[in-house]
Amino acid sequence: MEATIALRLPRDAASVPLIRQMFDGTLRSLGVVPQIRDDIELMLSEACTNVVRHAAPSDEYMVTAGVHDDLCVIRVVDTGGGFDPHQVREPKESAESGRGLLIMRALADDVRFTNRRENGAVVSLEKRLRFEAGAAGLSM
């Protein structure tokens, strides 16, 4: 079974719920269990929110999100200034933001950050899927 969504989105806050809802609808229709859908929704939101907040001077970004058998693969690609994930500091316990990379690392089965120097960054997230009994995703 394979299902993929690919969108080029404007780098603004309104794009985050759009891609999140579109992909959640796909996962729901395939019968992915709610806990896994919630994890994927949060990972995707964090990756896209980081682009919106930090990927200047880029005006847009690309998201591909796909299901390949029992694996969800997400790639968020921007053309901003890039970043080094090893240089990102851990947020203070009282901080209200800055936890995006930690959340992605905690929820994903595999996460990779690729810095393309002054040509942006790629965030790749993978998550194993579990399906409801009798789900459409099991029979494809």
UniProtKB/TrEMBL annotation:
<protein>
    <submittedName>
        <fullName>Serine/threonine-protein kinase RsbW</fullName>
        <ecNumber>2.7.11.1</ecNumber>
    </submittedName>
</protein>
<feature type="domain" description="Histidine kinase/HSP90-like ATPase">
    <location>
        <begin position="10"/>
        <end position="126"/>
    </location>
</feature>
<dbReference type="Pfam" id="PF13581">
    <property type="entry name" value="HATPase_c_2"/>
</dbReference>
<dbReference type="InterPro" id="IPR050267">
    <property type="entry name" value="Anti-sigma-factor_SerPK"/>
</dbReference>
<dbReference type="InterPro" id="IPR036890">
    <property type="entry name" value="HATPase_C_sf"/>
</dbReference>
<dbReference type="GO" id="GO:0004674">
    <property type="term" value="F:protein serine/threonine kinase activity"/>
</dbReference>
<keyword id="KW-0418">Kinase</keyword>
<dbReference type="InterPro" id="IPR003594">
    <property type="entry name" value="HATPase_dom"/>
</dbReference>
<keyword id="KW-0723">Serine/threonine-protein kinase</keyword>
<keyword id="KW-0808">Transferase</keyword>
